Each structure stands twice: as C-alpha cells, then as structure tokens.
Amino acid sequence: MVDVEHPAPDDRPFLIQVSSLSAVAREAFAVSVAQRYRVWLFVGGAGRTQTVTWEGPYIVGHTGIDTQDAPAMIEAARALDARLRAEHGRGVAGVVCYDEARIVDAAALAAALGLPTSPPEAVARCRDKHATRTALAAADVPQPRSRAVADVPQAVAAAEAIGYPVVIKPRNLAASFGVLRVDAPDGIAAAHAHALSIDLPEEKNRYEAGVLVEEYLDGPEISVDAACFDGRVVPLGVAHKELGFAPAFEEVGHLVDGADPLLRDPDLLAVLTGAHAALGFHTGVTHTELRHSRGVWKVVEVNGRLGGGLIPHLDRLATGVDVNLAAADIAAGRTPELTPGPSRVAAIQFLYPDHDMTIAEIRVDTAALPPEVERAGLLAPTPREVKLPPNGQAWESRIAQIVAVADTEQDCRAALEVAAKAFTVIPATEESAP
Length: 434
Ligand SMILES: Nc1ncnc2c1ncn2[C@@H]1O[C@H](COP(=O)(O)OP(=O)(O)OP(=O)(O)O)[C@@H](O)[C@H]1O
Ligand SMILES: [Mg+2]
Known about the structure:
- By secondary structure, the chain is an alpha+beta fold.
- About 30% of the residues lie in helices and about 30% in strands.
- It has helices at about 25-35, 70-90, 105-110, 120-125, 130-140, 150-160, 190-195, 265-280, 310-320, 325-330, 395, 410-420, and strands at about 15-20, 40-45, 60-65, 90-95, 145-150, 165-170, 180, 210-215, 220-230, 230-245, 250-255, 285-295, 295-305, 345-350, 355-365, 375-380, 385, 400-405, 425.
- The N and C termini lie far apart (about 70 Å).
- Adenosine-5'-triphosphate binds near residues 176 and 289.
- Keywords: ATP-binding, Ligase, Nucleotide-binding.
- InterPro entries: ATP-dep_AA_Ligase, ATP-grasp, ATP_grasp_subdomain_1.
- This is ATP-grasp domain-containing protein.
C-alpha cells in the first residue's frame, strides 16, 4: 500500500512586498498578511542586504534588488508575474510597501503592472512635506502655516511672518528626525543646521529649499489609520500620541481606544477626506497625523503608508479590525474587512534610559510583567552608547517597547507603568566604557 499525501492546494493570491524592515516593527504585518496571501519579497538597496532573515516563514520567495530602483523592480516583477502565471496559473495581484523611503517606487511598480494603487504622484505629494502643504492649502484643508526655506535668513524671515513659536523640520524625512520647536529668533540658526544635519543614505530626494518653517500647533496629537478604497476614506484606528523630549518631538507612546468617539467624528472625517482628496490619494492605507489646535483638527502630515510604532497592531487589538490585512486587501483589489469587534484599549510605551550613557546591559524581569502585557521586548543589542533626543534620535535611544491591552484606558496605562519597572538599565562603569 502506498500513502500519497495531497497537500491542500494553495490558492492564496500573490503579493509583491517592497522591503520589510525589522521584525520588532513589522512581524505583526507579516503574520496577518501571510494568512491570506503568498508574499514575494523584493529586498535590498543602498546599505541593505539582499538576504532574508526573520521574514522567511512568512514569504514564498524573494528577489534581491535595489528597492529604490523602480524601473529595475518593474522588469523583475514582469518576469516574476509571467513565471507565476506559468507555474501556478495566477500572477501578481498587488504590491504592498510600508517603508517610507520606498513608497513612491512601490506605487510606480504597482501602476506599471496595472495593479491597484494611488498615483505615484499622489504618494510623492505625501512624501514631500512642502508639496503636501501646497496641495492642502489649495483645497483649504486646515493645517499650520508653512514655508520652505533655503537658508537661515529666509528661515528667520519666515518665522517672523508666521510668529513664534515655530517648528523647523526637514522637508522629507521621517521618525521626527531633525524636527525642533523654536521659541525665539536666536534659536533659528541652530535648528536650521540641525534639520540639515540629518543625512540618511536612503533619502534620495534633495531640495534646494530643504527645510520647512511652520506655525507651531499646540494641543493634543493623534494619528489616524485610514483605509482608502472605492472613493472612501474610512478611519480604522485613532492613536493618541504621547510626546517627549521637547524641544524635539519624540513619540514615546501611543494609545488606541476601540470605542474612541473620534472614529466617528464628522469634523475629523471632513478634514481627513479633504486632505486625501487634495493629495489625490485614493487607494491604500494611510497614516495621518493631526493636532487639535484652537478647536480645529489640523493636518501635520499624511503618510502614504501604514503607520509605524506598531500602531496598526494596536488598532487590531483595540478595534478588532486588522489594518495590516486591510492594506494587503486593498493592494490586491479586494474589499477590506472593516467590521469592528469588541472594543478594548491598547497602548505602546517606548522606554529610554534616564540620561545619556553607555548601557552595559538591560535586564528584564519577565515574571514582573502584568497579564495585560501583550508583548515586551528590547529594541537593540547591548552594550551600546545612547544619546537621548534632541541629540540622539528615536531609533538609537529607545531601549525597549511594551504593548498592553485592557478594558479601560486606566487599566492599560497602569499595566504599562508596572511593566516599565520590570526593565533595569545597567550602565557601563567608567572603566569599562569605551
Ligand atoms: N507645525 C507643527 N506644529 C506642531 N507640532 C509639529 C508640527 N510639525 C511637526 N510637529 C511635531 O513633530 C512631529 C514630527 O513631525 P513630522 O510628522 O512632520 O515629521 P516626521 O519626521 O515625518 O515624523 P514621524 O515619522 O515621526 O511621523 C509631529 O508628529 C508633531 O508632533
Ligand atoms: Mg510624522
């Protein structure tokens, strides 16, 4: 007798994913999307390896390629599509990308293949914060006054015209790199130099007027993850952002309440819808940051991609809606499933050392983590030197992240507070410090 195994036919559609970033930041995406799609990863580019590590179990193949070279990706994707059609009877259904420095290239790839996407120009308008401002201004969408400047005298003049305090920031970066609040004219030159000093090798766009001077919006900040499809902009999760390290704008935590009335707030929805229409962004998931200033929601920026900081994961814990999967569904031309489940409150807290130091070791007492903690982990290897913002930047200075989920905001925050105490930073002694 011969046993013949019949593997279940795998008819999940194929998606091309452009770049994957780190497991701590993006494994939740991989887990969600692999349930429904066969993911083929395009990986590599300036300063990046072309090899696959943690992504392995979640993908069906990969191509080592410069993921900022759209023409090369288009050629590779056409060949892949032909191969998949020949071998599996179905080609590439969509393109997904959450890597800010690659979203325009990914949109160009999807457009060239005739797959669902917002126009690459609309995605580029999100990336260039000055282009965002210009588009929103033309459509009267509420936002801070903003000017692009090429040098310090222009920055001083812009700040005078706008009125202090102002925010000075690079035109095209992310992760709050180089963003500073300035309260008086004598701070402008240093902030301008700081904004220009941040040079990421990944960042290809260079502008003559590469710095923005903006009206400072006071008031609380939120980010809204929204699904854009069929001419609709549907808010899926509202994250309340906790800021720290002034005059920098470091995001030290986010909280998402599944029952947040802002999810159905008509004024907020009008601003969101207006902003997306002004930018021409109609297909995909976006992450829009806003501040409530003088009674009005004003747009800080629209990121033409999924949010970072595990916010899509918080959305799912709090609302039951899988925002990561929604992004994949929209990319594949499928109507996303947006029916919420029971509401909960989910939050993430990033931990930092108390001051600049060389960290020898970080100890975690896992037994001391309360049951509300959904995940908690270190963000970087030790030993290492840590500089806090504004001198150091988020990705270097964060030492750990904790996610908790509970029935109320109070319980969720209390759990995070207890959990933070489970982490102990051991500084290097002076003798052993480098
Ligand atoms: N005009 C403004 N008024 C008040 N705060 C601002 C303004 N512009 C930026 N900020 C603050 O700085 C943060 C970072 O700015 P912005 O989002 O423009 O840059 P970013 O580098 O793309 O940020 P990130 O990737 O962290 O979202 C904002 O989330 C907000 O807290
Ligand atoms: Mg931002």
